[in-house]
Write a structure and sequence with these properties.
- 27% of the residues lie in helices and 26% in strands.
- With 346 residues, it is of the alpha+beta class.
- Helix 1 crosses helix 4 and helix 3 runs antiparallel to helix 4.
- Pfam families: DnaJ, DnaJ_C, DnaJ_CXXCXGXG.
Length: 346
């Protein structure tokens, strides 16, 4: 990030603070928000308004505001001062000249590195799963809570794997470049050079002196996250709901997405659907007519539209094991109306 751009962002933030918004409102939080709530809000909103992704007018200003709000509220001392005395208290605490972190560096640090302004980011794998929903919930629309087990960056080391920043050292084998030059003799007096990934640091250029005690140097930890699936009214089979950036985290990539494909739950008997049509199977006696009845406008809601599909009632005839004399006469009349006295073959 070039210094002229950073200076522009500082000036921009200073201008925004003339009409400073409530920092809690910037992150869409209440003042009782926990540290985890603040992290989650920054994670969601910084992705949403990052200028590399969001080209809407005002997105960059919003991104800067979000970074400043997180910088203050994620620091216990700054948050306490802000809660008591506001932005003026923060400026007084810092000697009358408030310090503003580079929002792009903050974003890079939060997500484990690799994200530089204007550069392409390596994306982690996307998780795709089928999610069964009752036909009743698809008909009316519903919010369904569920849990996902995934890996997140260690809260203690933020994905470095080290006990502290002092335990991260430049690799002495490669000098921090992540690669080594290997010289091999192919015949007397003739050598060849090749560049290989450093086996001491794994190509990262850094080595860890003391591992993080929370994740044992693994950089990530297992975590169970709560989500709410919003099922739109009349959602079609296979409709996809995307939770952006909610897949496994890693310091080597930006998290991929979690994709849920909605399927109607298979239930015995009762209702079933075909696109916007709704079907019902009705069991009747042998003396009743067997056909599919169509009831207009009483089927599934039209997805992202108005009105309803049709309701189809399929009549299923059940043959009795014994036939009464009266039913026998009615069947003879139905199949042989002109032969009322014909031989009884039933």
């Amino acid at each position: 990030m070039g210094s002229p751009v950073f200076l522009f962002l500082v000036v921009l933030l200073a201008a925004l603070l003339v009409h400073a918004a409530d920092l809690y409102k910037v992150l869409e939080l209440s003042k009782s928000a926990s540290e985890q709530d603040i992290r989650k809000a920054y994670k969601r909103l910084s992705r949403k308004y990052h200028p590399d992704k969001n080209k809407d007018p005002g997105a960059e200003e919003k991104f800067v505001e979000i970074a400043h709000a997180y910088e203050v509220l994620s620091d216990a001392t700054k948050r306490q001062i802000y809660d008591r005395h506001g932005e003026e208290g923060l400026r007084a605490h810092e000697g009358g000249q408030q310090h503003y972190a580079n929002p792009f560096d903050m974003f890079q640090s939060f997500f484990g590195g690799g994200h530089h302004h204007g550069q392409q980011v390596r994306r982690g794998p996307t998780s795709v799963s089928e999610f069964e929903v009752s036909l009743a919930d698809i008909y009316t629309g519903a919010n369904i809570d569920f849990m996902i087990k995934k890996r997140i960056l260690c809260d203690h080391c933020r994905g470095t794997g080290a006990a502290s920043s002092d335990d991260i050292h430049t690799c002495s084998a490669c000098g921090g470049s992540g690669v080594r030059i290997v010289r091999q003799q192919i015949m007397p007096g003739m050598f060849t050079q090749s560049q290989v990934t450093c086996n001491e640091c794994g190509g990262r250029g850094k080595v860890i002196g003391r591992k993080c005690p929370h994740c044992q140097g693994n950089k990530v930890m297992d975590h169970t996250q709560h989500y709410t699936l919003e099922v739109p009214r009349g959602a079609p089979e296979g409709h996809e709901v995307v939770f952006e950036g909610e897949s496994d985290e890693s310091p080597d990539w930006e998290p991929g997405d979690v994709v849920l494909r909605i399927r109607s739950k298979k239930e015995r008997g009762g209702w079933r659907r075909k696109e916007s049509g709704l079907y019902w199977k009705e069991t009747i006696g042998v003396e009743e007519p067997g056909y599919v009845q169509t009831i207009k406008g009483e089927g599934m809601p039209i997805f992202e539209g108005t009105g309803y599909g049709d309701l189809y009632v399929e009549y299923n005839v059940v043959l009795p094991s014994e036939i009464s004399p009266e039913t026998r006469k009615r069947l003879l009349h139905a199949f042989h109306p002109d032969s009322a006295h014909s031989k009884d073959e039933l």
